[in-house]
Design a protein that fits this description.
Pfam families: DUF3152. InterPro entries: DUF3152 (IPR022603). This is DUF3152 domain-containing protein. Keywords: Membrane, Transmembrane, Transmembrane helix. Helix 2 links the parallel strand 2 and strand 3. It is built from five helices and eight strands, in the order H-E-E-H-E-E-H-E-E-H-H-E-E. With about 300 residues, it is α/β, with parallel strands linked by helices. It starts with about 45 loop residues before the first helix and ends in a 9-residue tail after the last strand. Strands 1, 2, 3, 4, 5 and 6 form a six-stranded mixed sheet that branches. A two-stranded antiparallel ribbon has the order 7-8. The N terminus is likely disordered. It has a domain of about 140 residues: Collagenase (Catalytic Domain). The radius of gyration is 40 Å and the shape is globular. The longest helix has about 30 residues.
Amino acid sequence: MTSSSPYDPPAEPDHGPARPADPPRLDFDRPPAVTAHQRPVRPTGRRVRGRRRRTVLLLVALLAVAGTVAGLTELTPRPADQRPATAGNPRPASGLGADPRVEPGRYRTQASGSFAAADGRSPVRGYDGPLRRYRVAVEQGVGQDVDAFAATVDEVLGDRRSWIASDELRLQRVTEEAAADFTIYLATPATSERMCAEGGLTTERYTSCRLPGQVIINLARWMESVPDYGAPLEIYRTYVINHEVGHELGEEHQACPGPGEPAPVMQQQTYGLDGCVANAWPYVDGSRYSGEPVDGV
């Protein structure tokens, strides 16, 4: 606050020193006067609106950034060796066809109905006989990697316990649909049911099936196996590939030979083992292993 200096009268030598001026009076009930250059300038309505708009935009931008960061954090997977391994969520083994963006044991069931085929060709597997070429395709958007699934199929069909053990058949995976004799599909329950129904087969969204030129693997069975199978998931996956490809090669259903015996690969193990124990291979100990044919199935 600015104030005027008190007036000092001239000194009078004959009356002693000049009397000091009275101190300025302070009024505690009234705020100090404010001069024109000290008065705060109130912002106009346009400035207030501008400031509010900038504040709102800043808050919206901060919320958007926070949401993006949270979404990226949620979608970013941990490396497989850092995920907790539990009975219901095992760590993925090599060649299991898993997409690293989806936790092991989980998959997406929303059906897109469109498929992506694996690239490249495999070596020719087998030693003699006609060459049958196959391609591998996975339904898009289900969280499964097509190249990993193809690697599993190649490994199964190229094993000496698989169909090439007859020495009367050779197999090779190709990319081009025109060059393939048949295609192995990995499809959601809804899509597999629709595809199988087109050939007159009823799967109730539960089983896999085979139509001429099409081996259709049900994604739910691929990821979960079946209750009371009594063997690891990898064994069931090997079985379902050999079983459905066996149909493509002309094999029919077979029965369990007896309690405690290995189940023939052409037995419908998805529906139960009937006293047999799980078996994924058509050849056991170097010999073709089979059971009695099942009529009308």
